[in-house]
Amino acid sequence: MRPVTIVSLTEPGRALADRLRSLMPDAESLHRPQPFQDAIHRRFLAGRRLILLCAAGIAVRSLAPVLRDKYQDPAVLVLDEHGRFVVPILSGHEGGANEWARQVAEFLGAQAVITGAQRYTQPLLTAGVGCNRGCALESLLALLDQTLAGHGLQRGDLRALASIELKRDEPGLRQLAETLNLPIHFYPAVVLREYGDRLSRKSEIVFRETGCHGVAEAAALACAERLVDPDFRAELIIPKQKNADATLAVARIYGNRES
């Protein structure tokens, strides 16, 4: 995925840029770069995606000299300085700007203004699962069905399952994936550890046993983000649930399917 540059021109815009960097921590942030046009030209031509916190007219006039075509140009979003509207102005489909706009709008609580032909967008749900050694399929299914029913969901709403690499040889998890006809992904502890600050609760006991502070929630988040785009943040819609044998959590992220 192409790197991101956020450009702000006002003090409210700079505050908004700081908020956006919590969604995209690796993004470059420029405030009132001088000369403005040269700064964004260099980054645009280098293939960086742009978020411009300025008037759409400024963005259009500034980028016009360096536009090529929708297959080469990186995605560009324009936001008002207060973060109320998110407008993809370049590479909506091919460059992913439309979906990126939806992700940013969801994060900010803003309105995505999509003016091109639409693709069908839906939430993608992933379930992260942890379990004791030798956990039976029946126990996993009981926890899954109880959890989903309690939140108005069904098995068919899930797109994938995930767990920690340590459980790759666990028969119950393989059987669960086969029963649900879903892929199951396993992630090493070092990957799941990256999600420690986003867990509803960090467990030192789990850390001593596995090398990460929580399996179900971290696996659900990691899987959701890798289904769509690791640059975007998934959210936990069901925090860790458990029974005597297993734990389960559900994450959500938004993605496109062709209409």
Overview of the molecule:
Helix content is 35%, strand content 27%. It is an alpha/beta fold. The protein has two domains: 4-118, Rossmann fold (3-Layer(aba) Sandwich); 121-257, CobE/GbiG C-terminal domain (Nucleotidyltransferase, domain 5, 2-Layer Sandwich), CATH 3.30.420.180. The protein has a six-stranded mixed β-sheet with strand order 2-1-3-4-5-6, with helices on both faces. The chain has a five-stranded mixed β-sheet with strand order 9-8-7-11-10, sandwiched between helices. The chain is elongated and about 65 Å long. The protein starts with a strand and ends with a strand. The relative contact order is 0.13. The mean pLDDT is 88.
- Which architecture of the largest domain would the CATH scheme give at its second level? 2-Layer Sandwich
Shape: elongated
Q: Work out the helicity level.
A: 25-40%
How would you state the average pLDDT, rounded? 88
- Fourth CATH level, the homologous superfamily of the largest domain: CobE/GbiG C-terminal domain
The largest sheet has its strands arranged as 2-1-3-4-5-6
Quickly name the level 1 CATH class of the largest domain.
Alpha Beta
* Domain count: 2
Return the structural class.
alpha/beta
**Would you give the CATH topology of the largest domain?**
Nucleotidyltransferase, domain 5
Number of helices: 9
Uncertain stretches: none
Strand content: 25-35%
Q: Nearest-angstrom radius of gyration?
A: 21 Å
H/E series, N to C? EHEHEHEEHEEHEHEHHHEE
Strand count, sense and barrel status of the largest sheet are: 6 strands, mixed
Span of the ends, CA to CA: 24 Å
State the total count of DSSP E strands.
Answer: 11
